[in-house]
Amino acid sequence: MREGIIIIDKPKDMTSFDVIAILRKKLGIKRIGHLGTLDPMATGLLAVAIGSSGRIMEYLDGDVKTYVAGIRLGIKTDTDDIWGEVIESRECRFPEVSLIEKALDAFRGVIEQTPPIYSALKVSGKKLYEYARAGEDVEIKSRKIYIPEIELLEVRPEEMELLIKVSCSKGTYIRSLARDLGDALGTLGTMSSLVRTKVGIMGLDDAMSLEEVKSMEVPEIEKRIIPCDGLLMDFPETRLGDWESKLFCNGVKLRLDQWGGDDDRKSLDFPLELPDIYPRLVRVYEMEGDFLGMGTVDENEELKAHKVLADIR
Question: Which fold has domain 65-199?
Answer without folding.
Answer: Pseudouridine synthase (3.30.2350)
